[in-house]
Amino acid sequence: MKKNSKNWLWGLFFLCAAGVILISQFGLFAGAFFEGISVFKIIVGILLIGMLIVSIYHAEFFGIFLALGLIYVLFAGHIGLPYISVWTMLAVVVFLSIGFHLIFGKRLHKFRHHSSEKMFEESAQTITDDSTCARVSFGASSKYLHVQGLKRARLECSFGALQVYFDETTLDPDGAVVEFNCSFAGVELYIPRTWQVINNINSSIGGVDLPRNMRDEYEGKLTLVGDLKFGGIEIVYV
After folding, report:
1. Mean pLDDT rounded to a whole number for the chain
2. Any residues with CB less than 8 A from the CB of 114 and at least 6 apart, and which?
3. Cβ atoms < 10 Å from Cβ of 206
């Protein structure tokens, strides 16, 4: 999708969102679904729908299930569905994501590698610096790291999707740190299974899907730090 077309689509999406919020405050939805729902819930719901659209487009299971789960938590009471706590729903999201990844993960990984240049012609990037920063906002991007002795990376993603491939990278002997600043986003990290990954991310209404990877020895240590809000980070070992 071309950048101008993408901007038009997202622009129309948020214009419609603004209209829904205003109309709901004028009482024109009396007796309808929006009656009794706070503006905050409407805004968060709209943002989650945007996250869902991006996640579906890029077949990111964690983002899809997280968006659907949080939408359920927000609006279940308004449509007569049973109450489920946020933490219970997050556990369901994690297990669903793991299950779908185990069944379809390899197929999707192969598809992304073969089609990423075509799908992300304007947003794919190869990085060779040992300290790097990648930013994505209202869009999707794939970053391919070809670094010898990576020390530090900073990943920022808001209202979008980010995929980072570390499989052509080596770490500094003292290890490397990846710092996150993500909100309403889905992030996937493709990491060699010979690395030790330590999760120190502060998450709020979101989570990090880190599969077990027990080994006697590791070739490097990668530490994840930073903040995650209303989003998901998935670690895929390759």
Report:
1. 77
2. none
3. 25
